[in-house]
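# step 3/5: fold
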Amino acid sequence: MGRYILKRLGISLFVVLMVSIITFALVKILPGDPAVLALGTEATDEELEEFHAKYNLDKPVVEQYFLWMKGAMHGDLGDSIKFSRPVTVCIAERLPRTISIGLPALIIASVLGIVFGVISAVFRGGVVDNFITFLSTIGLGAPQFWLGILAVTVFGLRLDMLPLSGYVAPSEDFGQYVYHAILPVSILAFGLLASVARQSRSNMLEVINQDYIRTARANGLSESRVIFRHALKNALIPVITTIGLQVRVIFGGSLMIEQVFNIAGIGSLITIAIQGRDYMVIEGCVLMISVFVVIINLIIDLLYGFVDPRIRKSWR
């Protein structure tokens, strides 16, 4: 197992390195000079040169990358061009807001998605199955910003039950945090839940038609034991993969939710950085997201072994 983990760690580090190189190259081909965007068209040549030198923009691209990577390895992601502050400070301010909205949405979507998927598969073709399938189709097809605007209109403007926008940190006032987070968490979770439910239903339908499930029923095992102990366990691997892929939605995919509900998170920070050609912020955010994603993927790979003993044996 130790060798397997080391192998996966090596692959993860390589992926992060490649993502950082590709991101660094892509941001450099964006049109516009960040110095002109930051200082304005009235800036003199001396001011532009001083700005370029401050942010190492006067050096070759390859040298810029190595200087940035050297700093990143020591926890220094450079200074933001637009905000004139360290990138780590900008990320530290925005990341908790994104996580406090995205993580509850992912947990809710994962638990309810698996439950609804199992129920839909067990009662295939019935009213419950058709209703869950209908909601899943809406969740997969409807744009998040449209659902967000609809929710604000109904629950915020018409019924006056929930706040239209804003964010309160859970550390400041947990009750107000929950009150302000109900709409954005629900809308973000809806799309994730639909994806997990569809995947769970599809896998459960495939598993419950296997011979060993029919044998378990023939041996007199209760239906609940057949479903949750035998069928669900074997159907979980693709579902775990689906849930792992949704981690990226917590960071980058929550942009629409942040825009609709006026939450200053990582998604809006990346948008502002792209518009202002803030190279350091873009590279720092993408690096942070890629590290989170590869860590989650590593955890998922380990979960495979605990769910399926056949995979665990292959680690040896």
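# step 4/5: annotate
The domain at 87-314 is CATH 1.10.3720.10 (MetI-like fold).
# step 5/5: archive (pending)
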